[in-house]
Amino acid sequence: MSDKLEIRPAKALGRLREDGIGPIEGATWYVAEEVGDGLVYYFPRGALAGMNWLTADMLLDGKFLVVFVLSLQEGEKGPTFRMVFGALNQCQARIRIPLEAVNQNRWRYPREGAWLKPMCGGDKVDLSEVDRVTLTVLRKSEEPARWCITPFIATVDEPPKLTKPFLPKGPLLDEFGQSRLHEWATKTRSEKELIERLKSQLEEASRSRFPESYSRWGGWKELKFEATGFFRTHHDGKRWWLVDPDGYAFWSSGLDCVRPDTDANIEGLEDALSWLPDFESQFKIAFHTSFEGHRHFNYLIANFIRAFGPDQWYDCWAKITLSLMRQWGFNTVANWSDWQIASRDGFPYVRPLHLQVRHVPYIFRDFPDVFHPDFEQDAEEFAEPLKETAEDPALVGYFLMNEPTWGFAKQLPAEGMLLTTPSCATRLALSDFLRKRYSNSNAALSSAWGIDVTFAEVAEGEWSKPITDAARADLAEFSTFMVKRLYETLSAACKRVEPNHLNLGARYYTVPPDWAVEGMKCFDVFSINCYMERVPADRLRPLSEKLGMPILIGEWHFGALDVGLPASGIGRVANQEERGKAFRVYLETAAAETWCVGVHYFTLYDQSALGRFDGENYNIGFLDVCNRPYEPLVEAAKSSHERLYKVASGQLPPYDEPVQYLPKLFL
């Protein structure tokens, strides 16, 4: 068998058309008019068996993001593995897919250069049955998508990473971290302009205040309950509230990522930068290496160093940032933040916890072996960081985790465990669960599942049998026990360390399915991330009633394509003025819901035009990389926060003007 296979396109899908020879050797230009346009590649069934990598080089034209989906399929109607990814505009990208990804035990692979955020989905497939690859456009702007790509090459050996990409229009970023491919009215034009803005913001910082109706914590002076010295929840007979340490009704309007956060992942993209200082210069602190081993540079930090120097920049940034939040009416430093600056200032904040197990294995994506006896020790270590804030009245509460990757899988946790982990304590627990259900009879289990199966095979070994609908129903019920064991163990460990603050839940990426919700009843506040036009009251109100707890939205945002970023984010509107209107609609309609106690906007800053660690490059901030506020969004926040508590109490109707929402453009 050859250790290399070249795979060429066999036919076009939709309205895709060829557009000539590309500037990369062996590449052909293609133009897609619509989502779904793409290419189909055929090869002999099983030709990928024994291969370890699939690779191709591509170049994306234009200046806005295009998101692609690559599929590997077993025949015309068989199971289909999917990998979604994007690419930087005007920069050669190398697609490098490790074919072990088809096992579905990993959600995301590292971004490499201009190849952005490769994410797995769909089915687990058998490479010995796969006979086709498709590459299609999943998301794009209103402009046609134009790219060139070489044939795919399947190899046994790992192909080299791309370190010197072709850049047809030269560097992608200017010296301040702004895009060179775009022009827009509020672009910073000089270092003098930049420094004057930052120094003016610092001068104004001492004069910032919450709105007059707010308590010192950002609660509402007109409604008071019992004070406990810490944040808590309360239902007043009409609606849920948070209550601040002094007893005032509190509705949490927060900003995520309150930190100097515009990191650009520059690994393999050094030639795409107009300016990069020496590592040993005064800008040294702006460099860091990610957990994936990639080098990053933070242009926002560099811009603050230009204004205040390497020793004073951080304190100046902190003063300016908390000042702006008060001016704009936000009362919570939300997730992913430098929460220590809020703690020192007495500004309400939340903090995330991070589960990284050391004593038990992961059994499916990031789901740990929760029935292993040593999981309790991992839970104790997980909760340990809470000791440092146990007596801090400014802490609203803590999140147990964020968007667990097992939640993105098509497979249930128990199903994924069977398919990927030959031996673990949780599989033994699953076998025991089934023994009780089927009276310890292999024949009864086989009859119920519709396959020849034994409890011993469930308990241990490589799983190669089909998962029938009846089997999946049992696995869904056991998945509930897995989720329950996970969260109850972690929650109990946290309460033992410190009982004063709120357990804010797990920030599921959407409204969780019923099997997951059943295992999530141990929180004080239920949290989800919700990137919709407004909160889905028809789904969340019954959930709050069922659980007997309020709900907090941990992430949401809106972006546009008019200020130099390649993508809008998960919410998209026409321009900055529409961003302001969309902000008001989302926040105020959420505040009017009696089950909702807060929404936290993601994020304070735009992402880098070059892409953050995974490649996201969205216009989602209140501030750009040069610390210039988006004024229409700022004015919207001020207006809504002045009305917030009267909307929440039912004294005023929420702002609900029409907004020009557009198709989303995100990775």
Query: How large is the radius of gyration?
Result: 26 Å
Strand tally is 30
Arithmetic mean pLDDT: 98
Major β-sheet profile: 7 strands, antiparallel
Termini distance? 37 Å
Helix tally equals 13
User: What percentage of residues falls in helices of 4 or more residues?
Assistant: 25-40%
What is the overall silhouette? globular
The stretches of 5 or more residues where confidence is low (pLDDT under 50) are: none
Structural class: alpha+beta
Binned strand content: 15-25%
Describe the model.
It is a single chain. The chain is an alpha+beta fold. 26% of the residues lie in helices and 21% in strands. The chain is built from 13 helices and 30 strands. Strands 1, 3, 4, 6, 9, 12 and 13 form a seven-stranded antiparallel sheet that branches. The chain has a six-stranded antiparallel sheet with strand order 2-5-11-7-8-10, with no helix packed on it. A five-stranded parallel sheet has the order 22-18-30-29-28. A hairpin with a 6-residue loop joins strand 3 and strand 4. The protein is globular and about 70 Å long. The mean pLDDT is 98.
